Amino acid sequence: MNDRLDRIRTAEKKYHEACYDDYKLFEEGSWLHKPVKTVMANLSLLENKEELQILDLGCGVGRNSIPIAEVLRNSRGQVVCVDLLESALSKLMSYGEQYGLNNHLLPVLCDIGHYTIPVNEFDYIVAVSSLEHVNSEAVLVDVLDQMRAGTKEQGINCMIINTNIQEMDIQTGESLEPYVEINKCTEAMIELLNNAYKGWEVLDSHVKELEFPISRNEQEILLKSDCLTYVVRNIAKKREL
């Protein structure tokens, strides 16, 4: 890992671990207080809910994994939860125990760029604010290829990706180098996704501008980005026997 990536990963680890320590899951005060509406809405489109296999790439402490597992409570379904932080997965399973959902959660400690997605394994793959944190654009393309190959017929991929990211020192107004591995312009990211998912049905594609303060290394920073939501369904038809 080069020096820039090492700095980014170290800062992101510190930021997320502080957030996970300071705020409890589903309590107001942070982005952890509720699941992503788009994630849950598209989950409801899936059939065969008795045995749904779901992959959450960059699951954190379970903001989305725990509510998804709740939907699966009375079924044989499972959520495979992949994250780089051991502390996040530990808290995930602690919350899973608290809500009685551990039988539906499978934690995997791994960089999502290194995780091998089994072919034709999942009904639903979720990646919220995680794909922009793989090591390079080449790795991103590989992950998208694996997500596509790993999705069953009529399965859905739900992605939320930050693009056009800008950072500014709140006190001085100085522009800073964004601490993100991949910072593509929104139009280029949409083109990349359209190419990756050619032939799939686009269920949702929209962009929302975000702006919020964060604290990093005792520095108050204003972070701006385009929040790109991209949801697609595998509409490949079964071969006739």
Count of discrete domains: 1
Overall pLDDT level? 92
Tally the helices.
6
Oligomer: single chain
Walk me through the structure.
By secondary structure, the chain is an alpha/beta fold. The protein has one domain: Rossmann fold (3-Layer(aba) Sandwich), CATH 3.40.50. 29% of the residues lie in helices and 31% in strands. It has six helices and eight strands. Strands 1, 2, 3, 4, 5, 6, 7 and 8 form an eight-stranded mixed β-sheet that branches. Helix 4 links the parallel strand 2 (78-83) and strand 3. The radius of gyration is 18 Å and the shape is globular. The N and C termini lie far apart (49 Å). The relative contact order is 0.14. The model has no long low-confidence stretch (mean pLDDT 92).
Defining traits:
Rossmann fold; alpha/beta; 8-stranded mixed beta sheet
What's the quick description here?
This protein has about 240 residues and is an alpha/beta fold.
Secondary-structure blueprint:
Layout (H helix, E strand, L loop, with lengths): L2 H20 L14 H7 L9 E5 L7 H7 L6 E6 L2 H13 L6 E5 L12 E7 L8 H13 L1 E19 L5 E2 L9 H11 L4 E16 L2 E15 L8
Parallel strand pairs: 1-2, 1-4, 2-3, 4-5
Antiparallel strand pairs: 5-6, 5-8, 7-8
